[in-house]
Amino acid sequence: MLSEKSKVHRDRxxxxxxxxxxxVLIYGPLAVWFFAADRFLYDIFASxxxxxxxxxxxxxxxxxxxxxxxxxxxxxxxxxxxxxxxNVRRVVLxxxxxxxxxxxxxxxxxxxxxxxxxxxxxxxxxxxxxxxxGVFMLRPDPDDVLRRSRLWHLEGGSLRPSLALATALxxxxxxxxxxxxxxxxxxxxxxxxxVQRLASIDVLTGNVPPSEMNGKTIFVDAAPKLVSAVAVxxxxxxxxxxEITAQLLADIEQRRTIFxxxxxxxxxxxxxxxxxxxxxxxxxxxNRRDIILIAIIVISTMVLxxxxxxxxxxxxxxxxxxxxxxxxxxxxSWWLADTVRKAAVNAFKRGSDFxxxxxxxxxxxxxxxxxxxxTVATAMYKLSLAFEEQAKPERAEAVIKWMKxxxxxxxxxxxxFSFGGKKGAPQQLxxxxxxxxxxxxxxxxxxxxRDPRINRPVALKVIPIENEFEDEExxxxxxxxxxxxxxxxxLTHPNIITVxxxxxxxxxxxxxxxxxxxxxxxxxxxxxxxxxxxKALELCARTAEALDYAxxxxxxxxxxxxxxxxxxxxxxxxxxxxxxLARVTDNNQTKTxxxxxxxxxxxxxxxxxxxxxxxxxxxxxxxxLYELMVGEVPFKASNIAVLMTKITTEDPSxxxxxxxxxxxxxxxxxxxxxAKRPEDRFANGADMAIALRNCxxxxx
Length: 700
Known about the structure:
It is a single chain. By secondary structure, the protein is an alpha+beta fold. Helix content is 42%, strand content 14%. It folds into 4 domains: 4-43 and 261-340, no CATH class; 57-255, no CATH class; 428-514, Phosphorylase Kinase, domain 1 (2-Layer Sandwich); 519-696, Transferase(Phosphotransferase) domain 1 (Transferase(Phosphotransferase), domain 1), CATH 1.10.510.10. The protein has 20 helices and 24 strands. A 6-stranded parallel sheet has the order 4-3-2-10-1-9, with helices on both faces. 37% of the residues are buried.
C-alpha cells in the first residue's frame, strides 16, 4: 500500500500531466473547438458593457417597398439636397443601393466630391467619384456573431480606414486615440445604444424641422430596422450596416473602444500555465469540499478579473479556455480525492474490526490512515478507553495526543464537555457516548451523543438532579422528571421531537431524544434576519398541528417559544422540542401552576396560576408568530409586574402596519390567538393551522 506522502506525489504528477495535456491541446490543435469558452464569457460581459450612441446622430431610412432601383436612387438624391440645405455635419451612406460597373452615375453623385462630407463604402460604385471613402467589412466568428472589426485594412499595399474611422476623421477637431493608428488594431463590439430614426418621407415632406438635422451626423440607407440586419452582436442585437457603423463611430469618437493590446495576449497564455501549476500544488491531498471551494475561488477570481478589465478598462482578456482547464483539473482532483476517501473508509472499517476484536494496536494503525473526522474521533475515543481498560495508559495518552495534533487544536474528548462550572460533564451516560454540547437550558444542558447499539445520534438532555433539588424534594423531582419523559415518549408526530429513552447515571438524569440538525427559530427573531411572512406563517401552522396532536393526547407544552421550535432548512423540517415540561392533564392532576417557562410568551391564565388547557399553548404560539413577523414580542416591560399587566389587559399593535407584505388577515388571526380569555381563542390547533395557511396565500 502506498504511503500518504507517495499518494500525494502520485496525484500531483497525474494532475500536472493531465492539465499540461489539456493546455497543449486547447491552445494548440484543438483551439478552434474551444474558442467557444472564451466567446461565452466575453458575450456575458460585453452585453453589460456601457455603450453610448454617437453624439448628434440620426438614421434616415428610405422605405424600399414597391420602389424600383431607380426610384430609390432618386430618393437618395432628394434627401442629400435637403440635408445639404439644412447644414448637416456629415452624411454616411453605409449601404447605398447596389450599382454595377456599367451603371451610369446618378446626377446627384457630384455632391460626393463637394464640401459636405459624404462617406461611402470603398467597395461601392459610388466610391469612384467620392472624395471620402472607408472600408466596410464584416468578419463574424464561426458562430455568426460579430465580435470584432478592423479599423485599418490593407488593400493594394496601402492602409485604408474603415467606414467608421473614415467618418471620424472628417472632423477637424477629432483627437484620434493613438491606438487606432496600429495597422493590426481591432476593436470589439459590445452592445448597441439605439440611434434616433427618421422616415425619409417625413424629411421629404417637411414634417421634420431643420433643427432636427442641423449639425448632426446623418446615416442614410434603404434598410429597415431588423428586416435588413446584416449581423448580430454579442448582446444578441440584430443590426443593419448603418447601426453597426454608428456603434463603432460612437466608440471611436468617445474613446470607449474595447481593444486587446499585445500584453493581453501574453496574459492569456501565462494564466493557464500558472493555473496548471496551482492545480498541481493545491488540489491533490485535499478533501472534496476543499477542492470545490478552491475551484470556486479561482474561477470566480478569473471571471472577476475579465469582467473588471472589460467593463472598466475596456480591455478584452479571454479567460474562458483557462477556466475550462482549471475546472477539468478540479474534476480530476475531485475524483482522485474519492479514491483516497474510499481508502480511508476501508481503513476505518478494518480499524473498527480490529477494535471489536480487541486488537488495539492494529486498530490504532488503521485509524491513523483516516482523515480526522468526528466519526474517527469517536472511534479513537473508544480506542483510548479500551487502552485504559487494558491498563495501558501510555497508549491511551498516545491516542489522545494524535487526536489533538490532527484536529489542529480542536477540543479533545477530555475537555470539550462541561456544564460551565468546575465539574466536567461525563463522557458517557448510560450507554450513550457524549460527543459535544449543543446548548444549555434552565435546569441542565443538551448534548449530542451517540447510541452505540445502533450507531444513532441522539440529543441527550441532562439534568444534575441532585444538585438542583434539596433532599426532601429530590425524590419528587426524580419522579416528575421520569413522568415528563414518559409523557413525551407517548407523542409520535412528524413535527414533534421523539423521545427514545430516559435514565439516571452518575447522579445525572437524562432523556435521549431525536437529534435534528437545524437551528431554533430564535435565529429569525432578529429584525435583520426575519423569515418571509408566508414562510413564518407556514412554520407556525405546522407547530399548531403538532400542538393539536399533543393536546388530543392530553399533553400541554407550557413553554412554546422560538427557542423550542427547531428548523432544518436543508430538509424544510420543523419540530417542537422540550415536551419534557408538559404535564398530564387528566382528572387526577388538575393543579398545574407555573413551574417553568418564559414569562413574555405565557398566557394570562398561566401567569395567574390558573388551570391550563391547550389554549394556553395557542396563545404562546401567537406571541411567537408576532415575534417572527416583526422581530419583537407584542408585550414588553422592565419588570414582571408590568409585563403581567400588559399581557392580561393590553392588545398589541397590528403587525400589518409594521411590516410590508403582511396581509391584514394576519392581524385577525393574531387577535384571536392572543385573546385574553381562553374560550375566545381558536377552538384547537387544527383550526389555527387552517387560518394561518389561509393567511399565507396572501402574504409576500
